[in-house]
Design goal:
- This protein is an all-alpha fold.
- The protein has a domain of about 40 residues.
Length: about 70
């Protein structure tokens, strides 16, 4: 259990150091970087929402097919 905790702590610390390094070495100004990050986050949010709606429609169709009465034969 201790090994897993240490692995997770190291992973989180590494991710934080990497994120800070990326922000410090980014080729854009702070405001431009924030704007780009916000735009990308909105794009990802739209893609996730679209995938969710598509999958939900598929699952609802499958559920309806399973609920439909079956004909013998």
């Amino acid at each position: 259990m201790r090994r897993l905790t240490m692995l997770l702590a190291g992973t989180i610390c590494g991710a934080l150091v990497g994120a800070v390094t990326a922000l410090l070495l980014a080729p854009y100004s702070g405001q431009e970087l924030r704007d780009r990050m916000e735009l990308r986050a909105r794009q990802i949010q739209g893609e996730v929402r679209e995938a969710y709606e598509t999958r939900r429609a598929q699952l609802e169709a499958e559920l309806e097919a399973l609920r439909a009465p079956r004909t013998p034969g």
